[in-house]
Hints:
about 5% helix; about 250 residues; mainly beta; 1 helix
Amino acid sequence: MKANKLTAIAILLAALFFATPKAKAQVNAQVLYDFGSDREFVTLTLEMFKQDKWGNTYFFVDHDFNYDQHVKGSPNLAPGGSYFEIARCLNFWQNSAIKNLSLQVEYNGGITKSYPINNAWLVGVDYFIHSKDFKNTLNLKALYKNIQEKDSDVPMQLTAVWAMNDLFGVKGLKFDGFADFWWETHAVDFREDGTCDTKKTVFITEPQLWYNVGQHFGCDNLSLGGEVELSNNFGSTGGFKCRPCLGVKWDF
């Protein structure tokens, strides 16, 4: 019965995600090298955002090319980790006094070289704040979060997503990113004797800074920059981590 309910939820969310009016999508690919001492590999990110008359859709997919971190002796030359998020904001009242408030449904899940990332289903509200010219935007989200086979003291996630275009008046300089905080009882810092620690909250933020270098030679699609991942009790690592990344971005 439990599996049937999850299947029904998945079908409903798929209908909400894809049965939407056609609109132009913003799509980009990012190739980033992670300098974190526990990472030191390349990640490819494919990202899409699309607005339409019913709201908007957002998703991204990460592929980690960490061949050297596969199980010793493994012949695999495939990505060592993949992660996927897709979110749909529903807003049928875009001409009303509450036009900046949307309902949101979301799915997260993936797998790493050593363990799966359990399916997570989220539902809640999104509030949109913007400057008059829409160059600076901020989305604040409060979401109920259910992670399969995981316990949580508070089944919630709080999220902020921001974007600042032409930062400091510099054309093509963009500062964007997100910050997530949620409650999840999970094991971290596994030791050789089989013991580990347990944490109950997770925080992660990934501020990015990009400069559109292509504008100077007729290729507006190309940007250089990077991000810094700041996290606490994220994944299987306990405590605070800082992982800087540098790379390129191509806007399609």
